[in-house]
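Hallway conversation turned thread

IA: we were arguing at lunch whether anyone had actually written out RAB6-interacting golgin end to end. Turns out nobody had. So, for the record, here is the sequence (136 residues) and right after it the structure tokens. Reply here if something looks off.
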Amino acid sequence: MKEKHRREIEGRDEVARKERDLARRSLAREYDAVLAVVKDKLQKKKKETAVAIRLQEVRARIEALTEYIEGGFELEEKLERLRDQEVSHDVDYGLASVSDPSLVASSFLRFLVTRSIKIDAKIGPRDFGVCNLLCF
């Protein structure tokens, strides 16, 4: 009788162990799927942020060059090239945009903080001249 009871208990233990292992594997697959989605969103956000930065830089250069042209400098060729780049970056930005607004705010703020720290450390007397706008 004891032997029969012991085998019954061992059988239940084996079934419980198999069910636990299946549940653990299933949960691991679900976590992997969630992590893959988050990783994909972060990659898209990274691309979107990079394109947005390039677009802002090109627009700032266009504005500065427009001011220089109005001041008598002959930079129409450069301005036209930058306008073409703006259109190209604008298209890239549209393709790289992420629909999750929480990712946009947090990563852009992080970028602004790190960018301002780098800029503050590197500002010098040449940073405000024409060369800085034309030499890139």
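OS: looked through it. Residues 2-134 form one domain.
IA: good, adding that to the notes. Residues 105 and 111 are 10 Å apart (CA to CA).
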